[in-house]
């Protein structure tokens, strides 16, 4: 690979590392305010990271290389890997006494908004560490939106920018309005986070809990300040607030911008939004009704708790209000399949994403029609626009890669002496960035701590693969990519 590409990737990673170093000062100030000694750890990590990042930025600053898909692939992979390691430094050196593997696992889980954790005793942790975990997820959520809206669609490996499909005046010039769009994006993201925090306070949370949970709710990340997650809080109001804002976090932010800033009601007619809301409502009603009939749970309670936990899994947030694996085989099976779904493209949500299911359904429909009318020419449509063959190929490749990585990850975990249920669901939940899997170790009431270092590194890699839409990482392992 040309040296300018490597220098450019190092420069971009160094610049973003400076932002992360600045963010470390926030938990430092919080710990200093509460009189916790960990403020020194965050301060030292901030200044050390900042100094190294400045040195690397100065050493790699050069003329901007020619823009290419190779540069974009490499920059994205280097950037997210770097952030995962840097984010783990305070966790490694703080009073938690995590080993390096666990610290990186926790950090990668945060920035990919997965929510799997190796930390227990959250209720007694210093506030700075709790805030840092939430802040990493919030930053990761914003990065995920930018990744899905701007980078992956241009690389034709994943993501599905609304503007490329529905806005002909922008699709050929996607960066002409980047500055104004980014201002609106950041403003809405911050605004929804603040609104969520106020709603949590009104529902009965403390201010500190509300701020932390608001960041991890909008990021659809799932980190909590309590071991019991939302089971710590009493009443249904908190669950209802969480359900609403998890859904908002799983909607395309490009469409939210069109709706909020420009008043475009037609933007809400996006087929992926309709499909996402339909399968979410159908699944939560099925679970609630089943619990009412089989377990004789009061329907109002079954509806609220089913809605919260189902939405949490579908949006890949990973909160839990109770151990839903105790709801019976039907519910467990539903939660397992819900792990595959995900929210919408251009959101903070992970998973397969609704737009791919829309396109796959259209491809299946056209394929069946061709069996009857062999010479029929039927364009594949997404809403009112025709989906070209390139996008269809991208969706097909993603599905194939998803299955291959999931199976490969499951086998790799099983090779490390992890049981079958844990291997399959841990690999799946890491790939879809959901957080909890099934079983006593990685289930909603479990913790990833018992897993070996080998298993944690495997899952960390899978989380990054899932967050970067798989293909954007796998291409780095092809010989063609490294040829000049």
Quick description:
With 484 residues, the protein is mainly alpha-helical. The chain has helices spanning 3-23, 25-34, 38-60, 69-93, 100-111, 127-155, 162-166, 168-171, 178-203, 207-218, 237-249, 253-262, 271-294, 299-314, 329-338, 354-372, 389-415, 420-431, 453-467, 471-474, 479-482; strands spanning 381-382, 385-386. A two-stranded antiparallel sheet has the order 1-2.
Protein described:
The protein is mainly α and 484 residues long. The protein is built from 21 helices and two strands. It has helices spanning 3-23, 25-34, 38-60, 69-93, 100-111, 127-155, 162-166, 168-171, 178-203, 207-218, 237-249, 253-262, 271-294, 299-314, 329-338, 354-372, 389-415, 420-431, 453-467, 471-474, 479-482, and strands spanning 381-382, 385-386. The protein has a two-stranded antiparallel sheet. A hairpin with a 2-residue loop joins strand 1 (381-382) and strand 2. The N and C termini lie close together (5 Å). The relative contact order is 0.11. Mean pLDDT is 86; it is low at 161-176.
Radius of gyration: 22 Å
Choose one word for the global shape: globular
Helix content: 55-70%
How large is the share of residues in beta strands?
A: under 5%
Spans of at least 5 consecutive residues whose pLDDT stays below 50 are: 161-176
Q: Calculate the terminal CA-CA distance, rounded to whole Å.
A: 5 Å
Strand order of the largest sheet: 1-2
- Please give the count of helices: 21
Total number of beta strands: 2
User: What is the element string, with H for helices and E for strands?
Assistant: HHHHHHHHHHHHHHHHEEHHHHH
| Average residue-wise pLDDT | 86
Class computed from helices, strands and strand pairing:
mainly alpha
- Main beta sheet, described? 2 strands, antiparallel
């Amino acid at each position: 690979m040309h040296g300018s590409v490597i220098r450019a990737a190092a420069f971009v990673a160094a610049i973003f590392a400076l932002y992360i170093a600045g963010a470390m000062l926030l938990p430092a100030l919080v710990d200093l305010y509460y009189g916790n000694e960990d403020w020194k750890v965050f301060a030292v990590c901030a200044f050390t990271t900042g100094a190294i990042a400045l040195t690397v930025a100065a050493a790699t600053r050069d003329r901007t290389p020619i823009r290419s898909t190779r540069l974009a692939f490499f920059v994205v992979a280097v950037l997210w890997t770097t952030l995962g390691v840097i984010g783990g430094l305070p966790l490694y050196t703080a009073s938690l006494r995590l080993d390096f593997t666990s610290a990186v696992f926790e950090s990668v889980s945060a920035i990919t908004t997965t929510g799997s954790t190796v930390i227990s005793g959250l209720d007694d942790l210093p506030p700075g560490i709790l805030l840092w975990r939430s802040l990493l997820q919030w930053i990761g959520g914003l990065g995920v939106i930018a990744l899905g809206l701007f980078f992956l669609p241009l690389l034709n490996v994943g993501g599905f920018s609304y503007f490329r499909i529905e806005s002909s005046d922008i699709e050929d010039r996607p960066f002409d309005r980047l500055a104004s769009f980014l201002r609106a994006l950041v403003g809405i993201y911050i605004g929804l986070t603040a609104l969520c925090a106020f709603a949590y306070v009104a529902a009965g949370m403390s201010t500190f809990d509300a701020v932390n949970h608001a960041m991890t709710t909008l990021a659809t990340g799932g980190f909590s300040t309590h071991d019991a997650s939302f089971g710590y809080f009493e009443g249904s109001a908190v669950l209802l607030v969480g359900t609403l804002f998890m859904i908002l976090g799983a909607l395309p932010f490009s469409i939210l911008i069109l709706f909020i800033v420009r008043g475009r009601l037609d933007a809400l007619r996006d087929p992926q939004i309709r499909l996402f809301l339909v399968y979410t409502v159908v699944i939560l009603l099925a679970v609630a009704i089943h619990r009412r009939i089989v377990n004789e749970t009061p329907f109002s309670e079954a509806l609220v708790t089913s809605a919260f936990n189902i939405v949490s899994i579908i949006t890949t947030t990973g909160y839990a209000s109770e151990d839903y694996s105790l709801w019976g085989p039907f519910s467990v099976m539903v939660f397992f399949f819900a792990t595959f779904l995900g929210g919408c493209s251009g959101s903070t949500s992970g998973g397969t994403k609704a737009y791919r299911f829309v396109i796959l359904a259209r491809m299946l429909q056209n394929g069946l029609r061709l069996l009857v009318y062999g010479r029929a020419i039927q364009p594949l449509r997404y809403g009112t626009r025709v989906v070209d063959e390139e996008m269809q190929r991208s969706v097909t490749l993603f599905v194939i890669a998803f299955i291959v990585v999931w199976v490969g990850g499951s086998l790799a975990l099983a090779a490390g002496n992890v049981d079958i249920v844990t291997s399959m669901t841990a690999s799946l939940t890491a790939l879809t960035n959901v957080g909890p899997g099934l079983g006593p170790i990685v289930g909603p009431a479990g913790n990833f701590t018992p897993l070996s270092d080998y298993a944690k590194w495997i899952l960390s890699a899978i989380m990054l693969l899932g967050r970067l839409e798989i293909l954007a990482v796998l291409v780095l392992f092809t010989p063609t990519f490294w040829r000049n």
